[in-house]
UniProtKB/TrEMBL annotation:
Taxonomic lineage from the root: Bacteria, Pseudomonadati, Bacteroidota, Cytophagia, Cytophagales
Superkingdom field: Bacteria
Keywords attached to this entry: Chaperone, Isomerase, Periplasm, Rotamase, Signal
Protein name as catalogued: Peptidylprolyl isomerase
Entry's Gene Ontology molecular function annotations: isomerase activity
Residues annotated as domain PpiC: 170-270, 273-383
Species, as recorded: Hymenobacter ginsengisoli
Pfam families, A to Z: Rotamase, SurA_N
Amino acid sequence: MLALPQVSHAQLGISRPVGQQLLDGIAVKVDNQIILRSEIEGIMAQEAARAQGKPLPPDLRCKIVQSLVLNKLMIARAEVDSVTVTDAQVNGELDRRMNYFVQQVGSEKKLEELYNKPVRVLKEDLRPQVHDQLVQQKMQEQISGKVAITPREVKEYFDKVPKDSIPYFSTEVEVGQIVIPAQVNDAAKQAAIAQLNDLRARVLAGESFEALAKQYSQDPGSGAQGGYLGFFKKGELVPEYEAASRKLEPGQMSPVVESQFGFHLIQFIERKGDSYSTRHILLKPVTGTADASVAATKLTRIRSQILKDSISFSKAAKEFSTDKMTAANGGLLANRQDGGSRLPLDKLDPAIFFIIDTMKVGHITPPLPYRTDDGKEAMRILYLKSNTPPHQANLLDDYQKISQAALSQKKSRALDDWYEKNRDTVYLEVAPEYAQCKVLASNGQ
């Protein structure tokens, strides 16, 4: 039996209650924004765990303080510069986080047991923090989003790296995939439609839509809130859901609506300007393993065409793969660290590693069972495009990584310049134990 992953308060991002904040102590105030001692020490503890017993840099704590102050300064300046985010953006991020942690622990009920709170309360606890994080991201994008790097700057950056500090990369591979979902059989679809029609009839007979959504909806983000999704503008929800919603008046229910997420029963709540709010009950038909045979047949045909050079793997992925992230990149999996397509072999998902470890470059697997990030059954074929042996970094083989590092440094300087320009526009108060940090001195001295 697999143990449940441990989800910490820091991972989930739930802030401590106000009473605990007062006991904890404020390290820095930036206008009406505060940084707690526990935030700084929590990051220090994380860095110590990563270091695995190795000594930490002596200036690490001050660097953490400076980074946190920069974040708070961006939020404070955002209020002055009228940089805002919408409720729909905040709700979307809250739903994404809840869905992720529900997947991590196994179910919505287990997440609620872990925190001894309903998902609805967890989301409300998170709302201020998520709002600030999105505002900060928007400010950062305005400050450094347009910063670009030239090939000459990349070379100059690399030439300045001391020879004994040039990194050594382990074996790296480029892996592509084409994903086709298993088909839901008609019987499963009809069962979901029939259940939603039954629930619709129960609401019309006087039962509470919200109570039924809490009991039956399979949307982990909204189910605990009686199906409530919040306010959205045109184009922010999937087309089928939006089209059905905008035909309704307050209190009215839609017929059963099918989207990429499953089948919905929608109840319209209200309009505010160009936004509208709804609640829904979502049912996801169960996909039987036998239904994967259609996807496997299609992938076998695609694989055959690629092997016969009738179509390239990249073009086939763009045309046929339902995994949007990789399809847009010709099927290639992306390295989340630098955005490139080369992946360290020792960091690969074991499900991929044990397959490609015995493959030759250019080979394509037959169709293999696969489960998508949202838990749906599918089939996929894997393609080993390249296999780069261990080597010391160089501009020819590692331009993407070096370019990303150079760009990151340039963006960091842009943020530092913005900080120096704006630091005197806000009220800054610092606890004595952090007074030695450079962030507190003028011009970084």
